[in-house]
């Protein structure tokens, strides 16, 4: 009986080693301040923007994968401050607003509407782990009334300075700006410039 009691107590002690330990909170990232220069483009009329994404980008996981693997992973102790969908939507709206207003809803059916669908926002490693890049893939469609004015597939890539979560976040920040600027340039080529004041 004493032996059984001793074993039971030892089991409780070993199991209790983790009791009371609170895991460290995850490190939280965002896309930082939007301080990068934007392309010099003409002013345009207001547009409305809708933004959707694949379900995997609706939570705050920082996603990575190796090459073209079909098995994406998430860092265990790193998170985005908001979902990648929301972070990128905000960044694109911020940068597009340099050329003209970006609305959540159309004022009328004649207000051009930019429909954006995000399918990739992740850190992609080389097979040997020696390098990685932030990669963003999105599809944009521009409609006015019932007319499709154009569509654009945008791929934005940026090399990661370090092969860890922080490096992937830095690369995705740069790729986010690049994706927004590609959109801005496409809109400038697709939409008529806003009339000049007094013109």
From TrEMBL:
The protein's name in its UniProt record: ABC-type transport auxiliary lipoprotein component domain-containing protein
Span of the signal peptide: 1-24
Superkingdom of the organism of origin: Bacteria
InterPro entries from the UniProt entry: ABC_trans_aux
Key word Signal present: yes
Keywords on record: Signal
Entries under PROSITE patterns matching the protein: PROKAR_LIPOPROTEIN
Keyword Signal in record: yes
Annotated ABC-type transport auxiliary lipoprotein component domain residues: 56-184
Taxonomic classification: Bacteria, Pseudomonadati, Pseudomonadota, Betaproteobacteria, Burkholderiales
Regions annotated as coiled coil: none
